UniProtKB/TrEMBL annotation:
Name of the molecule in the record: Holliday junction branch migration complex subunit RuvA
Comment on protein domains: Has three domains with a flexible linker between the domains II and III and assumes an 'L' shape. Domain III is highly mobile and contacts RuvB.
Keywords: ATP-binding, Cytoplasm, DNA damage, DNA recombination, DNA repair, DNA-binding, Helicase, Hydrolase, Nucleotide-binding
Record note on quaternary structure: Homotetramer. Forms an RuvA(8)-RuvB(12)-Holliday junction (HJ) complex. HJ DNA is sandwiched between 2 RuvA tetramers; dsDNA enters through RuvA and exits via RuvB. An RuvB hexamer assembles on each DNA strand where it exits the tetramer. Each RuvB hexamer is contacted by two RuvA subunits (via domain III) on 2 adjacent RuvB subunits; this complex drives branch migration. In the full resolvosome a probable DNA-RuvA(4)-RuvB(12)-RuvC(2) complex forms which resolves the HJ.
Free-text function comment from the UniProt entry: The RuvA-RuvB-RuvC complex processes Holliday junction (HJ) DNA during genetic recombination and DNA repair, while the RuvA-RuvB complex plays an important role in the rescue of blocked DNA replication forks via replication fork reversal (RFR). RuvA specifically binds to HJ cruciform DNA, conferring on it an open structure. The RuvB hexamer acts as an ATP-dependent pump, pulling dsDNA into and through the RuvAB complex. HJ branch migration allows RuvC to scan DNA until it finds its consensus sequence, where it cleaves and resolves the cruciform DNA.
SMART domains linked: HhH1
Family of the protein in this entry: Belongs to the RuvA family.
Domain of life, per lineage: Bacteria
Lineage: Bacteria, Pseudomonadati, Pseudomonadota, Alphaproteobacteria, Sphingomonadales
Length: 197
C-alpha cells in the first residue's frame, strides 16, 4: 500500500495530478481544493489513500492528514465512493465538514456534486460524533448533538441571515465557553458577540 508520495508535480488536470517520483508518474485523484494549491514543476508531498478494486488500483492524494482522515470517514458511509468524497472535500475543508456534521447542516454537505439531500442526511447521521480534534485541526470544538439550546441558537442565527458555517462556529465557541448547560439566550448573546469581532 502506498501511504505517501514525494516528488515533482508533473501535471494537474480537472480531477487528478501526476506526481513524478524518480521517473515514475503516479496518477493521483484529489479534491478541487488540493489541486488548486498545486503548481506544476514544484516539489510536492501528498498523503495517499490507496483503494484496490477488482478492476483498478486508485490513489487519492491529500495535502493534510486531516483531509485524508475525513476522506476515510466519508468513504465509510454507504453510497459515498472516492469521487463523491473528493467532491465534498472540494466544497468543505475538514473543519467545515466537522462543523456541518455536528450541526446537522445537510444543506452545506449537499452543495457538493453528486450529493443529494438524502445522501447528505445519511452522511450527517452516520458520521455524527466521529469527527474529533484531528479533523478539526485546532478549530472551535464541535457542537454536541441533541442540545436543543444549541439548535435554537443556530435557528435564530440563520433567521438573522448568518451563513450555516459561520453560525455553527460562533455557537460552538459560545458553547465551549459557557458549557453544555447554557440556555439559548446566553448562547445567542455570546455567539453574536463572537461574530461581531
Amino acid at each position: 500500500m502506498i501511504a505517501k508520495l514525494k516528488g515533482l508535480l508533473d501535471s494537474v488536470a480537472a480531477e487528478a495530478a501526476v506526481i513524478d517520483v524518480n521517473g515514475v508518474g503516479y496518477l493521483v485523484s484529489a479534491s478541487a481544493k488540493t489541486l488548486g494549491g498545486l503548481t506544476p514543476g514544484t516539489s510536492v508531498t501528498l498523503h495517499i489513500e490507496t483503494q484496490v478494486r477488482e478492476d483498478a488500483i486508485q490513489l487519492f492524494g491529500f495535502l493534510s492528514l486531516a483531509e485524508r482522515d475525513s476522506f476515510r470517514l466519508l468513504t465509510g458511509v454507504q453510497g459515498v465512493g472516492g469521487r463523491v468524497a473528493l467532491a465534498i472535500l472540494g466544497v468543505l475543508g475538514p473543519s467545515e465538514l466537522a462543523h456541518a456534521i455536528a450541526s446537522a447542516d445537510t444543506a452545506s454537505i449537499a452543495r457538493a456534486n453528486g450529493v443529494g439531500p438524502k445522501l447528505a442526511s445519511r452522511i450527517a447521521n452516520e458520521l455524527k460524533g466521529k469527527f474529533g480534534a484531528v479533523a478539526l485541526g485546532g478549530a472551535a470544538p464541535i457542537i454536541v448533538a441533541g442540545n436543543s439550546a444549541v439548535a435554537d441558537a443556530l435557528t435564530a442565527l440563520a433567521g438573522l441571515g448568518f451563513r450555516p458555517m459561520e453560525a455553527s462556529r460562533a455557537v460552538a465557541e459560545a458553547q465551549a465557553e459557557l458549557g453544555d448547560a447554557a440556555d439559548v439566550s446566553a448562547l445567542l448573546r455570546l455567539a453574536l458577540r463572537k461574530t461581531a469581532k
